[in-house]
Every structure is written in structure tokens, then in C-alpha cells.
Amino acid sequence: MKAARMLETALKDPFAQIAQFALDPHLCVPDEVLLQTSTLLIDTLAVAAGATRLEVAEIARDFASDFHAAGRPEHSAFMLFDGRRVSVPGAAWALATQIDNLDAHDGFNPTKGHIGCALVPALFAFAEQRPDLSGRQALAVLAMGYELAARAGIALHATACDYHTSGAWNALGVAAVGAHLRGLGPDALRHAMGIAEYHGPRSQMMREIETPTMLHDGSGMGALVGANAVLLAERGFTGAPAITAEGPEVAHIWADLGQDWTVMRNYIKPYPICRWAHGALEALRQVVRDHGIDAGDVKAMQVRTFAQSAQLFAGMPETTSQAQYSLGFALATLLVHGRIGPEHITGEGLRDAQVAALLGRITITEEPRHSARFPAGRWSDVTLTLADGRKISSGDVNARGGPEAPLEILEIRDKITAIAGHTLPEARISALWGMREGLLQDELKFADLARIVTPKCDD
User: Which helix (H) or strand (E) holds 228?
Assistant: First the structure.
């Protein structure tokens, strides 16, 4: 009965419900949701730190510095882990591009993509003009943005004939975060979301899978478009209503806004590899753990997975982008090294002779039963043929890190060090991790976290 009433309300005035939720200065967010949002925030910042020395990250930050300057100080923001100031949209774009290209950030299965990699950069860029913002308030705004972006993504996938990258829809979440922090009203928010949807990069995900590049999942442009949309709407620029938010055919997707906190079902990745590979990686991890197998024992590996996963990059990658959108290479790396870190998908890791030798023993095929479970899950199974003739099968295994198989909190803490440890000293990593619970304290300002993540990594 309650669900029916919520749907009726959404159909009568779809945007009124969205605006009330997005702009409420006293938005009530449960503590468990705030803590989950804080965990995702810290995880995302660790990925940002770990990505600072990637070639694409340096290109993005230098480009923003050269071409996204702010005309006035109040229109500028720091680029995190860099220390230079650029325009608010430039700062959001550069950091989102940086995070997007170290594929270790969180995601939400029904959207087939990622939210935090665009929203976190926007949050920091817009929050600079809000020194009064508390940690709890910032987390509430971020949680709100996750909820709007998640529904925008689900709505787009339900109504578009092609599979678009995350930037196509997480731009709407960025617009909502910016509108809230700048104190805009419902009309301006409506135009901002309309601008963000209209100009959002309707980039085709499978093109990037076929030929992996620095374009990655489009979230850099999603952050840029969403930030631009807010600032344009604030000045009176008008935009068509966002049909993924206001169309009657998607009203049911938005009807439970503020009731069902989808952010609780976001996953945290254990590896900096495309999520589509994680079901097979977890299957291999379990087999190796349970049977004490090492790379030298394996004569052949048969992988059955869902269609999209089977289309990941084949062969030995030459670039970090190819490595992160790989399946065979990721499996070989995990078997050889027992883990996958930034060092395995960059530099000498791309020329690892042991991994290259093992890669030739791996066969990957689509399995219809796994394809039928996508995008709700990322299922795969592996069968190892050992040198002694034995065959060991994993059975069907889903990716780990989401609500169905969450990482332990200590595993997340270890991941922070594994991802950011080559760029940040342990003291700074510990300070960052300490903010996970600290942000929930009323007296702590969001600017206290910004002071940890603004200076260059080697400062």
C-alpha cells in the first residue's frame, strides 16, 4: 500500500519529490547509511591517491591547470593530491578522470557502472565555498547524490537502446550535489539536471571495452558536465527536463527515493580491475586458497563467464587501460602474485614474463547461465587442469565486495594501503582512514578531511 502511494505521488509531480529530497538542508540520513557513505568516500580518495602518478592523471591535472583556470578566486578549487587551483568544473573533471583510470573504485550493480568517482570530486570542488560544512552534512549530501545518480543510471539503462558509460548518468548526481551545496532552489535544480542529462556523455561502453583507452567509463566528463550544469543553471541558463528523472515510464524507479538507500548495496572492489572480471577472480582465489595451488601447478584454466566479461581485453596488455579491462591477464596476475595492485597493471607489470606464459594456458568462453544473471551479479566459474592430471572446479561464484559477499573492514583498510601506499606515507593513510568514523562526529568540519587530501602526494 505504501509503495503504491509513493508511486502515485511520483506520477503526479515527479520532480517535486526529487527536489524536496535533494535540496533539504536537514535531510535525515540514517547513521548506517552515513557510515557506508563515509567508507565509500575514503575508499574513493585512496584510489585517487593511488592514481596520481598514472600518465592519464598527470595529463588531466596539467590540462586542467592550463585550460580550466578560474576567473576569480571564489570560482576556484584545489585539485586533490596536487595542490594547484583550477576552476570548480576543472577540479571535478581532473580528479574524476584520475579516479576513473585506476579501476578500483566503488560501483552499483543495477547501474552497470560507478557513482562515487564523479560525485566525490564534485563534492570537494563545491564544498570549498562552504567552510561551515560539517562532516555529517557532507556525508548526507554525498549519500543524496548517490541515490539520485543510481536511479538516473537505472532509468537510462531501462529506456535507452545502447549501453552507455557512467558519465551519461552520474552527471545528474553531480548536478544535485552542486545545487544543494550552492543553495539553489527547485527551479534551478530542475534546469541543472536537465542540462546535465542533455549534455551528459552518451558514450558507448562496449566501444571502450573493445579498444581500452584513457576514456575509460566517461566519469570525468560526467563530473565536468554536472558541475557546468549547476553553475549555468545558477546564472539562468535553462535546460530541458531530465526525462530519466521525470518521464512517467521511470516513475517507479524514483518512487522510493529517501526510503530505499541504494548506497548500502554499493560494492567495494578488492582489485583495480574491471568489475566484470571479479567473479572469475574470486572463483580462482577460492580454488587456490582451498587447494594450495600455485602458478606452477596449473597446466590449463577454463573460464566460463557472462557475455560482457568474455569480451574483455584478450592477450598481454601494452597499456594500463588494457590491463584493467582484461580478464585473462588479471587471472594470470592473481595466480602468479596472489594479489593485484597498481604495480601489476603499470610499468614492469605489463611485461611480466611469468604472467605472459600463464596467459596462453587460459581459455575464456561465455556461459549463458552467467549472462542471464547480469547485471544483478557478476558470476563466473573456473576449472583448473593441474600438471598431475587433476581437474578442480570452483562452481558458480559471484564477485566479492558487495552486500552478498562484503569485504571485512580490515580488508578494506588493507586495500587502502595497497592502493595508496606507493604514493602516500603510512601516517597520511592512517589519518585518511581515521576520517571514516570521524566524519560522523558533529564537531568535525569537512574541511578537516580536505586538509589531508589537498597537498601533493609527496608533501
Answer: helix 219-234
Closest CA to 172 of 250, 59, 72: 250
| Per-residue pLDDT tens digits for 369-407 | 999 999 999 999 999 999 999 999 999 999 999 999 999
Query: DSSP secondary-structure letter at 327?
Result: S
Question: How, if at all, do strands 76-78 and 85-87 pair?
Answer: antiparallel
Q: How far is CA 192 from CA 29, 195, 304, 415, 451, in A?
A: 24, 5, 43, 36, 29
What is the Cα–Cα distance from 229 to 239, expressed in whole angstroms?
9
> What are the backbone angles phi and psi of residue 272, rounded to the nearest 5°?
-85, 60
How far, in Å, CA of 164 to CA of 162, rounded? Answer: 6
Contact 181, 141 (CB under 8 A): yes
Q: Which DSSP symbol is given to 81?
A: T
pTM exceeding the 0.90 threshold for the entire prediction: yes
Domains and CATH numbers, the chain: 2-265 (1.10.4100.10), 275-393 (3.30.1330.120)
Beta strands in 339-449 (DSSP E): 362-366, 380-386, 391-393
pLDDT tens column, 196-248: 999 999 999 999 999 999 999 999 999 999 999 999 999 999 998 999 999 99
Q: How many CB atoms lie within 10 A of CB 130?
A: 18
Answer whether residue 257 shows pLDDT above 60. yes
Burial (CB count within 10 angstroms: exposed 0-12, middle 13-18, buried 19+), residue 1? exposed
Cell 602518478 sits at which residue? 53
Average pLDDT over residues 150-172: 96
Task: Name the amino acid, one letter, at 348.
Answer: E
Tens digit of each residue's pLDDT (9 = 90 or more) over 101-155: 999 999 999 999 999 999 999 999 999 999 999 999 999 999 999 999 999 999 9
**Rounded Cα gap, residues 408 and 270, in angstroms:** 11
Amino acid at 281: L
Q: What is the largest CA-CA distance in the chain?
A: 72
Helix or strand run (H / E) with residue 305: strand 298-305
Helices (H), 325-390: 328-337, 353-359, 368-372
Q: What percent of the chain has pLDDT over 70?
A: 97
Residue type, 387: A
Cell matching residue 425: 606515507
